Amino acid sequence: MLSFHSATTRSINPRRAVLEALELAYGDPAPVTDLILINAAVGHDLLALSQAVRDQCPAARVLVASCAGVVGREGPGESIHDIALMGLRGAGFSVAHVDGLVGATSFAKGAELARGLLDTPQPVRMLYLIASGIDIANDQVIAGMESVLGPEVVIFGATSSDQMQGVATFQAVDGTLFQHAAFAVGFWEPGLAVETQASHGFVAVGEPMVVTRSEGNRIIHLDGEPAWPLFLRRLGLPATAREGDTIPIGALAEPLPVVLAEDYGNDHILRVVTHHSPEGHLIYATDCPEGTRLWLTARDEERIFRDLDRMVTAMGQRRPDQLPVAVFHADCLARGRRLFDRVMKDELVHRMQQPFACNGEVPPWFGMYGFGEYAHLAGRNYYHNYTTALACLYR
């Protein structure tokens, strides 16, 4: 039976960060454990963190991802030296990873990753996925994984990020660093179940842009013009703007079919542009066929909180009188209340955590501010952007 332990810490020194996190999570800086997951803000060297874990827990697998901040049972941490740690002990999980994941390889690499989870004592029914956050067709990764494991497998997790600049994101597997990789933790313990859901709370505004030329996840033309320059003009940004200027304000909205919109509580699903090519192509988060209409969006603060409450209530109603044994959380830095010229996230995190707490104690909680989120929508695996996405594991 799997056990879960989590902690968040802040330290410039990677060894001290790991020692503090292990002691907070386990009460012991050198616990006996089988897997350590770390989300690390960009001020940390992922390989140094990996080595620090291996020095303390030499038998453990170590999986690390870069991010723009972390969330734990202690709340959010947004400095460049924050880490979140989740430790797993016991039988019931398997690990797989792939490298060379980019837009054109997304389906094949998703299938390859899933094949790495086939040789398990019991079928993998749910998996935690971390993938590269730049130049990846996430819908194709999901489709590739489902082609091997079946559509009933539940996929949750995130894409790694940098400090919302769209330059490079990193993943580390057992002390080896990658930039275009993905890793998955497949859960096969028979007693585990999962509930997962996402919400965003943004609204579409103005007139849509139409994708008039695309190839996979590359949008070449919008409204018959080169996509990146038009995107910048519609955002009111100069031609010299970079991804770090567009990501906080440039959420694009795709319309959802009615049945999905009713389940989501929103007429649109959001997409982030994390990169562009020298030719002016938008590197989109999913495949985007020609004819797709894309709206600019505005954050609706009250709706963000209202939709979060709706989501957490719905998740609780599906598991009455049960509390999760662990929560995996992916989120967006653009969510929360805007105060003092910054987005404050403490209230939002508190409102999502308290319904899952027992006697005021939050369960093991492992979260990151990444570039995107994997969670169910209307009972199917979906990729989201600019959301809060929760995956609660129950036994």
Walk me through the structure:
By secondary structure, the chain is an alpha+beta fold. It has two domains: 3-198 and 305-394, no CATH class; 202-299, no CATH class. It has helices spanning 14-26, 46-56, 106-115, 138-149, 227-235, 243-246, 258-264, 301-318, 346-353; strands at 3-10, 35-41, 61-67, 70-72, 75-77, 82-89, 93-98, 126-131, 154-159, 171-173, 176-178, 182-187, 193-199, 202-215, 218-222, 225-226, 252-255, 268-271, 275-276, 282-283, 293-299, 326-331, 337-339, 342-344, 365-369, 372-377, 380-384, 388-394. The strands form five sheets. Strands 14, 15, 16, 17, 18, 19, 20 and 21 form an eight-stranded antiparallel β-sheet that branches.
Provide a compact summary of the structure:
The chain is an alpha+beta fold and 395 residues long. The chain has helices at residues 14-26, 46-56, 106-115, 138-149, 227-235, 243-246, 258-264, 301-318, 346-353; strands at residues 3-10, 35-41, 61-67, 70-72, 75-77, 82-89, 93-98, 126-131, 154-159, 171-173, 176-178, 182-187, 193-199, 202-215, 218-222, 225-226, 252-255, 268-271, 275-276, 282-283, 293-299, 326-331, 337-339, 342-344, 365-369, 372-377, 380-384, 388-394.
